[in-house]
Backbone:
């Protein structure tokens, strides 16, 4: 079955440590997105990529970095510069960034601080 | 800028009751509108969508109509079930005629609890 796979499901970070969240899709989608979800809040966009080898900052990019070297992969690194990283992180993809195509979501990674 | 406002939750209903979750938006041009549902511990699933004024999206007994005149996209279901308990998110995507980037803007989510 086609879909989006996020790993790990749970992740713990020590102070001063960088951690990387994995996102893989086999839907052949061009566009991919990373969102952050905090309790009782909507989703906020961290980074997005409209096509391979290209990405743009979203609304809350500070303290995060991404890469898009392959169409199917869009890993997110939470750096030590992100002072409040505890949240639920969701990866999404869509067929194309134009034409208002719906986004498909993975099951998320919950990041906590040790 | 573009924004989405949903009614605050939680919304608590008895099984077979009628559901309405209000959603209004602010946007220039003609955005597409979406409802997503999130079950505990999971990602979001697309529930329905509408891409132009007066369109009605429907799925699994849920409906929502794109009302340009009231800038609204309220979610309705005639008879809810316990299995409908989840968080519901209204969202819009950048209008095509204003440099669409494919980004989604979400409301804060409304928790629905259905009791037997």
Residues:
């Amino acid at each position: 079955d086609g879909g989006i796979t996020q790993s790990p499901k749970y992740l713990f970070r020590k102070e001063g440590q960088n951690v990387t969240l994995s996102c893989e899709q086999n839907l052949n989608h061009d566009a991919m997105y990373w969102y952050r979800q905090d309790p009782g809040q909507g989703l906020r966009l961290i980074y997005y990529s409209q096509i391979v080898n290209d990405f743009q900052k979203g609304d809350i990019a500070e303290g995060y970095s991404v890469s898009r070297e392959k169409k199917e992969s869009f890993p997110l690194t939470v750096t030590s510069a992100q002072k409040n990283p505890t949240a639920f992180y969701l990866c999404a993809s869509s067929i194309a960034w134009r034409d208002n195509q719906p986004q498909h979501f993975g099951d998320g990674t919950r990041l906590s601080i040790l | 800028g573009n924004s989405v406002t949903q009614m605050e939750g939680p919304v608590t209903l008895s099984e077979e009751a009628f559901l309405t979750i209000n959603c209004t938006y602010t946007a220039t041009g003609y955005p597409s509108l979406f409802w997503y549902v999130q079950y505990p511990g999971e990602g979001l699933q697309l529930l329905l969508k509408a891409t132009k004024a007066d369109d009605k999206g429907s799925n699994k007994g849920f409906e929502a109509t794109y009302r340009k005149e009231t800038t609204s996209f309220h979610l309705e279901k005639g008879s809810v079930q316990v299995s409908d308990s989840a968080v519901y998110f209204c969202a819009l995507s950048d209008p095509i005629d204003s440099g669409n980037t494919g980004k989604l803007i979400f409301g804060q989510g409304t928790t629905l609890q259905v009791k037997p």
In short: The longest strand of chain A covers residues 43-51. The mean pLDDT of chain A is 92. Chain A touches chain B at residues 4, 6, 31, 33, 40-45, 48, 50, 56, 58, 90, 92, 94, 96-108 (CB under 8 Å). Chain A has no helices and eleven strands.
